[in-house]
Specification:
The structure holds 2 protein chains of 2 kinds. By secondary structure, chain A is mainly beta. Chain A is 0% helix and 56% strand. Chain A contains no helices and 12 strands. In chain A, strands 2, 5, 6, 10, 11 and 12 form a 6-stranded mixed sheet that branches. Chain A has a 4-stranded antiparallel sheet with strand order 3-9-8-7, with no helix packed on it. In chain A, strands 1-4 form a two-stranded antiparallel sheet. Chain A is globular. In chain B, strand 4 and strand 5 form a beta hairpin. Classes of the chains: A mainly beta, B mainly beta.
Chain lengths: 113, 114
């Protein structure tokens, strides 16, 4: 069975600083990897995904993530954050056969001026 | 196409009542998924359909929960005899047969059981 661990429940950071949100996963089969963002009282918006190919994936809003198979990690990074990046971020893996997503517990990113 | 639609957006019900939620997926998507998200947690998988067939149900889906997708179009999720522990955001998502690409979530239905 797959599982996802987001190593930080809360990440406070100042505006224009870099940020890294950490995600580790476990799976005995090949998976796809995702990062989603959720603003208050809204649904999930896809930031980026890794399906295959290049291990460095670029997404929307200046975010990127790197797939590391040996460390089973998929950390999310942004070189300079904005106040508007304040939100909950979820890492997820999906089974390639069923497509169902297994989510981590989430990381609350709080960007302060 | 306007994406995945869920109705209602909010539902307040008394404990013991039955509730039903609706999800309209993107029209060409064969797969439809239901998730539940409680406060401060990540979404948890409940069940999924491929066309009209329900292919998998999570152990989270007790006997009080039932989901349908007649004719492989919209889907309904019914909760019978609601309990306070059922209070959560119920999210629907749809995707093409390939699964990984084009996965789209709706805005969710927030259920409060009082």
């Amino acid at each position: 069975a797959q599982s996802v661990t987001q190593l930080d429940s809360q990440v406070p950071v100042f505006e224009e600083a870099p940020v890294e949100l950490r995600c580790n996963y476990s799976s005995s089969v090949s998976v796809y990897l995702f990062w989603y963002v959720q603003y208050p009282n809204q649904g999930l918006q896809l930031l980026l995904k890794y399906l295959s190919g290049s291990t460095l994936v670029k997404g929307i809003n200046g975010f990127e993530a790197e797939f590391n198979k040996s460390q089973t990690s998929f950390h999310l990074r942004k070189p300079s954050v904005h106040i508007s990046d304040t939100a909950e971020y979820f890492c997820a893996v999906s089974e390639q056969s069923s497509g169902k997503l297994i989510f981590g517990q989430g990381t609350e990113l709080s960007v302060k001026p | 196409d306007t994406g995945v639609s869920q109705d209602p957006r909010h539902k307040i019900t008394k404990r013991g009542q039955n509730v039903t939620f609706r999800c309209d997926p993107i029209s060409e998507h064969n797969r439809l998924y239901w998730y539940r998200q409680t406060l401060g947690q990540g979404p948890e998988f409940l069940t999924y359909f491929q066309n009209e067939a329900q292919l998998e149900k999570s152990r989270l889906l007790s006997d009080r929960f039932s989901a349908e997708r007649p004719k492989g179009s919209f889907s309904t999720l019914e909760i019978q005899r609601t309990e306070q522990g059922d209070s959560a955001m119920y999210l629907c998502a749809s995707s093409p047969m390939a699964g990984a690409d084009g996965y789209t979530f709706g805005s969710g239905t927030r259920l409060t059981v009082v």
